[in-house]
């Protein structure tokens, strides 16, 4: 398997929309969203219409699910620094009653909402470490601050318990993972070499079959191989003996966040034959 990562903005020219094939109103397409500090860019790789679709679910995750994390870590944002939030809510339990209060940024307790999901529908019998089946998921938030910070908040606000609300759009999140895998596959193999593009209808929302193509086995393969690398996120890509393209996506790779397998599409016969002839997988 080949791990694909970069630390600085890196461009690869496409010249047409990787989703619909249009050559009008083209914009750059970040393989991993810019809001997640993505740096691999398909130059002129998305038309305005398709870009609006992908920006919607990427934006929902960045603005709704990850706003506190991105603010604390000072991640990329189109919002001017002076307009970024300076307070975030926590939930206190005092005397058996819940109350929601805003606290300064340095006291906030941000979470990264993520999902543990079963195997892709095209491989329904693949085992999952947690026993999840295709279409099943568990919401798994990851802390970016330790429990000692939470205890200090409880002491300061004289609370029996401190918690944080979070949200995640399950379908939108999986479409974002599929979009990352597809963009990286275009980066690695070239758009013209991908004959069948299984995930594109699900990414665009024209098919409701995202669970067929995105899943996981619950293992930490990328973490074991790349935790010493400096990039924020990592994707590895390969194709099998039938020319089917797979990618494994891990966001926030220095943590034990879930890793996702995406069945992206299939190489053209010509591309498949060529790569096999040079011993590349």
Folded structure, characterized:
With 281 residues, the chain is α+β, with helices and mostly antiparallel strands. The protein is 28% helix and 28% strand. It contains eight helices and 14 strands. Strands 1, 10, 11, 12, 13 and 14 form a six-stranded antiparallel β-sheet that branches. A three-stranded mixed β-sheet has the order 2-4-3. Strands 6-5-9 form a three-stranded antiparallel β-sheet, with helices on one face. α1 packs across α4. The longest helix is centred in the middle third of the chain and has 20 residues, at 170-189. The chain is globular and about 70 Å long. 36% of the residues are buried. The mean pLDDT is 92.
Notable features of this structure?
281 residues, alpha+beta, six-stranded antiparallel beta sheet, three-stranded mixed beta sheet, globular
Q: What does the overall shape look like?
A: globular
Q: In this structure, how is the largest beta sheet organized?
A: 6 strands, antiparallel
Task: Give the fraction of residues assigned to helices.
Answer: 25-40%
Low-pLDDT segments, ≥5 res: none
Distance from N terminus to C terminus (CA atoms, Å) equals 7 Å
The secondary structure category is alpha+beta
The number of distinct helices, counting runs of at least 4 residues, comes to 8
Rg, Cα atoms, Å: 20 Å
């Amino acid at each position: 398997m080949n791990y694909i990562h970069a630390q600085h903005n890196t461009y690869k020219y496409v010249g047409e929309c990787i989703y619909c094939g249009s050559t009008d109103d083209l914009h750059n397409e970040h393989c991993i969203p810019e809001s997640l500090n993505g740096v691999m860019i398909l130059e002129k790789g998305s038309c305005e219409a398709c870009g609006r679709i992908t920006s919607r679910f990427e934006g929902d995750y960045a603005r709704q699910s990850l706003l506190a994390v991105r603010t604390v870590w000072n991640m990329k944002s189109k919002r001017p620094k002076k307009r970024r939030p300076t307070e975030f809510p926590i939930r206190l339990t005092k005397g058996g009653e819940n109350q929601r209060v805003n606290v300064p940024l340095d006291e906030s307790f941000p979470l990264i909402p993520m999902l543990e999901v079963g195997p892709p529908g095209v491989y329904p019998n693949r085992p999952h470490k947690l026993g999840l089946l295709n279409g099943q998921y568990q919401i798994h938030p990851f802390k970016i601050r330790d429990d000692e910070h939470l205890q200090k908040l409880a002491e300061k606000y004289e609370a029996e318990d401190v918690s944080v609300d979070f949200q995640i759009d399950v379908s939108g999140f999986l479409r974002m993972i599929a979009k990352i895998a597809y963009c990286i596959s275009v980066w690695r193999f070239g758009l013209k070499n991908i004959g069948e593009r299984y995930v594109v209808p699900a990414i665009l929302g024209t098919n409701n079959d995202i669970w067929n193509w995105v899943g996981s086995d619950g293992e930490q393969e990328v973490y074991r191989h790349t935790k010493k690398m400096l990039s924020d996120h990592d994707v590895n890509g390969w194709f099998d003996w039938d020319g089917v393209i797979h990618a494994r996506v891990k966001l926030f790779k220095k943590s034990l966040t879930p890793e996702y397998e995406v069945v992206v599409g299939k190489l053209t016969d010509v591309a498949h034959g060529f790569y096999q002839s040079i011993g590349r997988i």
